[in-house]
């Protein structure tokens, strides 16, 4: 994989150039894309022109190639949202996060594959770690492109588990920031209280560097790791859904972090937080039925049966049930604030296990949806493997708005498990 932070440092020092890095990426794409299928659109010629811009090396991203999930609008490339309804659609403007990425010196190489409207219908993308296994979803193309060394950075999104899960399956770092740290305007909305823009990179320091470059929020941790953090191991009431590989990875990560000075203890979530897990789907689906209502009414026959059926069922959710779910979520956020008064980060499962073999499913968000609902930062930490050799991630969850601290804890866990 390509380290975004190291490449940017090499560009700024003159050891390489944006053009040379782009050609390295182009060679990897030529070698792997036909098998992996991470991109729905590629425009290497335009990227080459952009990489020649004067002064690019001095920008925050130093001309690094970036992939953009095809759920985010781009003015110079089609944006299809993973649906035939929008085949060839050309937005007039970039999504703000895409514009921010370009202004920071990122060179957009192409649009990465997304599931249909970032829901559950699997894409054509394959897992670079083993091509017969799922890459996860919905940000399948972004995770796979980084895992295959075809990109140092890619933008993704998460409404349930669509950054953390594919990052875990493909063995890369996935970072879901605090809710709305990166703007979601110009993203095809599924759920406006849940949709979150995130990042994929090789290591924790790479996504921290990229988030800082794009958003300018002091998130570049460099070589920093947290000092003696208080880390709570949270298995949740759904622990029985985690495979032996997932349990083994969580235990290994905890013990390794403890050896690095972390203070580790087990924690059972308060009842208010466990109650919130069950209502994520109510919030998501009520809003999705409204967000995609026009597509269902006028182009329903062009939706997958999976999504069409889901949206029709979601229309039956009464507003008072949705309002009650949002109240439950609010109580849970207060309870989580109390938890974080005693801990610096939570360590939990990223997914129920390694990537499933085959392509019937993108996997389960059972260990992601609560943290998305809470809006707090979450990072998949890579470096551990299942018995079959496929990656198994662990997830670091931080306090709302304390992304730098969460990233520093994740960096410590990463250093511990990869030592």
The major pleated sheet works out as: 11 strands, mixed
What is the name of the CATH architecture of the largest domain?
Alpha-Beta Complex
Approximate shape: globular
Trace the largest sheet across and list its strands: 1-3-2-4-6-5-10-11-9-7-8
Q: Oligomer, anyone?
A: single chain
Uncertain runs = none
In terms of DSSP E residues, the strand content is 5-15%
The beta-strand count equals 11
CATH hierarchy, class of the largest domain = Alpha Beta
Taking all Cα atoms into account, the compactness measure Rg is 20 Å
Characteristic key phrases:
Amidase signature (AS) enzymes, 419 residues, 15 helices, alpha/beta, globular
Question: How would the blueprint of this fold be written?
Answer:
Blueprint lengths: L3 H10 L4 H19 L2 E4 L1 H8 L13 E5 L26 H8 L3 E6 L27 H8 L5 E6 L5 H7 L2 E4 L19 E6 L2 H12 L14 E4 L10 H16 L3 E4 L4 H7 L2 H12 L1 H7 L5 H10 L4 H21 L5 E5 L19 H6 L3 E8 L5 E7 L5 H16 L1
Parallel strand pairs: 2-3, 2-4, 7-8, 7-9
Antiparallel strand pairs: 1-3, 4-6, 5-6, 5-10, 9-11, 10-11
């Amino acid at each position: 994989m390509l380290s975004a932070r190291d490449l940017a440092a090499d560009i700024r020092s003159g050891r390489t150039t944006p053009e040379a890095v782009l050609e390295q990426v182009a060679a990897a794409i030529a070698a792997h894309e036909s098998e992996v299928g991470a991109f729905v659109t590629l425009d290497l010629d335009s990227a080459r022109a952009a990489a020649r811009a004067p002064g690019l090396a001095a920008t925050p991203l130093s001309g690094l190639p970036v992939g953009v999930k095809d759920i985010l609008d781009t003015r110079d490339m089609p944006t299809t949202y993973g649906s035939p309804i929008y085949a060839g659609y050309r937005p007039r403007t970039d999504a703000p996060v895409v514009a921010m990425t370009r202004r920071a010196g990122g060179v957009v190489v192409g649009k990465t594959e997304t599931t249909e409207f970032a829901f559950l219908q699997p894409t054509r993308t394959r897992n670079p770690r083993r091509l017969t296994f799922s890459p996860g979803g919905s940000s399948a193309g972004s995770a796979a492109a980084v895992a295959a060394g075809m990109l140092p950075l890619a933008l993704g999104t998460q409404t349930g588990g669509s950054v953390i899960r594919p990052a875990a399956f493909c063995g890369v770092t996935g970072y879901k920031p605090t809710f709305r740290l990166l703007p979601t305007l110009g993203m095809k909305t599924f759920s406006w209280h849940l949709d979150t823009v995130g990042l994929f990179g090789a290591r924790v320091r790479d996504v921290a560097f990229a988030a800082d470059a794009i958003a300018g929020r002091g998130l570049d941790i460099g070589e920093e790791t947290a000092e003696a953090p208080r880390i709570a191991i949270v298995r949740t009431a759904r622990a029985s859904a985690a495979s032996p590989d997932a349990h083994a990875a969580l235990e290994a990560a905890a013990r390794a972090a403890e050896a690095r000075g972390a203070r580790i203890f087990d924690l059972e979530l308060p009842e208010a937080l466990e109650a919130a897990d069950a209502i994520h789907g109510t919030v998501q689906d009520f809003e999705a039925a409204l967000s995609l209502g026009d597509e269902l009414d006028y182009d329903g026959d062009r939706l997958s049966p999976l999504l069409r059926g889901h949206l029709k069922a979601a229309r039956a959710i009464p507003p008072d049930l949705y309002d009650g779910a949002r109240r439950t979520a609010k109580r849970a956020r207060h309870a989580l604030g109390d938890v974080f008064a005693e801990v610096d980060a939570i360590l939990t499962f990223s997914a129920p296990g390694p990537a499933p073999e085959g392509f019937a499913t993108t996997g389960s968000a059972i260990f992601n949806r609560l943290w998305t609902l809470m809006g707090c930062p979450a990072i998949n930490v890579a470096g551990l493997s299942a018995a079959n050799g496929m990656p198994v991630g662990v997830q670091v969850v931080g306090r709302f708005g304390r992304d730098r601290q969460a990233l520093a804890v994740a960096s410590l866990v990463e250093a511990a498990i990869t030592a």
